[in-house]
Amino acid sequence: MNTFKQFNASDIVTTPFVVNKAFSFSGSNNFTASNVGIDVFVGSELTESLFNTQSAATTGYISTQYRDLVHKSIRQLYYSNYYNQSYGDEAGTASIIPNQFYTTQSDTDTGIGGVLGFVEENFYVPGVNEEFNITGPRLTTNYYNYLSNTLTASRNLSGTSTGIGVVAIPSNLYGEYIKPGSFKSTVRTGSFSFVCTDDGLGNIFTEDSSGYRQAGNIIYEHGLIIYTINRFITGSGLGLPQMRPNQYVLRDDLKIEFSSSMTLFETQFNCQLNENEFNFTNNPSIISGSASGSLYPYATGSFFKPYITTVGLYNDRYDLIAVGKLSQPLPKSDVVDTNIIINLDMY
After folding, report:
1. From CA 305, how far away is CA 42, in angstroms rounded?
2. Choosing a second label site near 63 at 20 to 30 A (CA), which of 159, 294, 311, 323?
3. Other C-beta atoms within 10 Å of 101: how many?
4. Backbone angles phi, psi at 240, to 5 degrees
């Protein structure tokens, strides 16, 4: 039989903690599997004066998108504050102030005696020939661009006329975000391997004949890997294999490795049974079948104690929402309090 007891607020403690799970996928067939859904896009700048849906090139394994719109979206969302320099533009501090020392011959005033004429250079009449100058940086922006930290980021989308490569990982795989420092992509060409890894700060790096250099960026919270480097070169000497970002992401042997991150909430329930509580069973099988309905003799002795085998958690409507099984029956003590701890992980 069930025996109920109400929890107090002090009996319940909830603690958040982050869990990670590693994934590895290789090739377009695995990317597009029904339980995976990794999409790959190529972005390129518009080469025509007007966008034409009939002639515009498309991209995408799963979702079909226009290549130039992919490039524009990536630029707007993640590189809009990095148009002029790879470490970002300065914060916009432009201001408009009246300039009392700059006038043109088009500025007029009635002058002395009400005669209409040109105002002399450097002659300032408030409200009449007042002009305004903009001072400070003007071509700057203040977009967020989904930066991963407060350190100075390095992003560069200039010189990518040959196209960019984008790998889009769905949220059901990366969870809340890709774990920083866990990403790796690999493409093999003969004896050469083009390997890219993230530095944990939102940057993708690869090592080639020029050394360790940036290959793009990773947006952890969106599951996006953006390759912007114009080419991958490895080894030394002549005749080295080269690969642009749009070629890199479309290789069928492209291998993606990463770890997802998810915050779980562990709720701990302290089921406290006082020494004077629940010291007798409510199981009807303890009553004999005689007409008097008396207890069986074994239940009347001083050594008889009920055993606890299962703890159930109920909501306010007495609906059973969780069940905890003890590894072995636990005798209920009538000398000291009994505490049973239940841990329940939820997200």
Report:
1. 72
2. 159
3. 10
4. -75, 145
pLDDT(295) > 80? no
Burial of 249 by CB count in 10 Å (0-12 exposed, 13-18 middle, 19+ buried)? Answer: buried
CA angle 192, 197, 198 (to 5 degrees): 160
List C-alpha distances in Å: 114 to 109, 110, 111, 214, 302.
9, 5, 6, 69, 121
Q: pTM of this prediction?
A: 0.69
Instruction: Give CA 226 to chain center in angstroms.
Output: 15
- Whole-number Å distance between alpha carbons of 306 and 213: 70
* Residue 130, C-beta contacts closer than 8 angstroms, at least 6 positions apart: 98, 99, 100, 124
In this structure, the dihedral spanned by the alpha carbons of residues 265, 266, 267 and 269, taken in order and rounded to 10 degrees, is 180
Contact 252, 316 (CB under 8 A): no
φ, ψ of residue 262 to 5 degrees: the values are -140, 135
Rounded to an integer, the average pLDDT of 160-170 is 85
Q: Structure tokens of 36?
A: 């995976």
Reported as a single tens digit per residue, the pLDDT across 6-27 is 888 889 999 999 999 999 999 8
Query: Domain extents for the chain?
Result: 9-14+264-346, 29-87+142-261, 95-131
Q: Position of tokens 């944990």?
A: 200
Average pLDDT taken over every residue of the chain: 79
Q: Give residue-wise pLDDT tens across range 226-238.
A: 998 765 655 555 4
Beta bridge partners of 185: 196, 256
Compute how many other C-beta atoms are within 10 angstroms of the C-beta atom of residue 186: 16
pLDDT digits (tens, 9 = 90+) for 30-86: 999 999 999 999 998 876 667 777 778 899 999 999 998 999 899 889 988 887 777
d(CA 115, CA 100): 22
